[in-house]
Amino acid sequence: MHDQLTPETGLKGRVAVVTGAVSGMGRVIALELARRGAKLAAVDVDAARLERLKEEIGANEATFLALPTDISHADDCRRAVERTVAAFGGLAILVNCAGVSMDPAIPAGKQHPVKFWETDPAGWERIQAINSAGPYYMTRFAVEHMLANGWGRIINVTTSFDTMLARGMSAYGASKAALEAGSAVWAKELDGSGVSVNVVVPGGMTNTPFLPEEFRSPSILQPEIMAPVVAWLASPESNGVNGRRFIAKFWDASINSTEAAAKCSAPIAWEGEAVIAGRSK
Length: 281
Ligand SMILES: NC(=O)c1ccc[n+]([C@@H]2O[C@H](COP(=O)([O-])OP(=O)(O)OC[C@H]3O[C@@H](n4cnc5c(N)ncnc54)[C@H](O)[C@@H]3O)[C@@H](O)[C@H]2O)c1
Known about the structure:
binds nicotinamide-adenine-dinucleotide, 8 helices, alpha/beta, Rossmann fold
């Protein structure tokens, strides 16, 4: 494997916001962007672990900002963006990675999988608020700064299509399908602005605390799989790439990045999939 990012097209000095930064894939992405020289604004509900992340990265106030934030609240997201811009003078990259599983919608005493009529309505709403509204709020406020600069990156983590449609995943699947569709629209509305919107999924169950203990295993995908494709998308190497959905497990680090990107991506969402012999979608 060779490094596909040159120092000229790397991330040095660029300001990146990563949500869900203390655990699983968000943590891997945060560490990778920081390693490549980005100034990191780390967003998570877990304030104590944000401090630990700062120590782990070995960062100081000039390069790291801990932003304890519940992304399900629009005002908290606005504040996180404002604090990032005040601390670092701008905001170029946003990775929307924070998310929750079906757990909040599973009533006490029941176990996954639960049927949609058994889900707890308040938990169902909470899942939409974190997985779907949260990325919208973060992007809504961050994109103004990117547009003012004529350059920016929005990278949204959704999930595999079969997970969106699987039994037992009614609330989670709906939340990620909403983010997937939203991402497709955002990419179109930003086209030609210098700000891109792309989606990245790992490509299957990934070994993070998100999974119930019985599914955790070294033999499934590991969160590190996200690092090369997200680093490339965050960099100027991906200029002109907009509205694509990347499956991280198919990223081939042994070939040049333009080819690797083409091989592991398709248009966001289900564009082109729903045409029935000549009828409109
Ligand atoms: N693990 C998988 O198998 C898998 C597969 C496909 C997609 N995903 C998606 O990948 C993303 C990352 O998941 P992961 O597996 O790394 O999970 P994880 O549980 O390890 O990390 C999720 C992070 O989000 C944070 N978070 C939760 N609610 C929040 C809120 N309201 N505000 C701010 N932060 C909040 C958590 O504190 C945690 O740090 C999620 O969006 C998930 O839906 C996961």
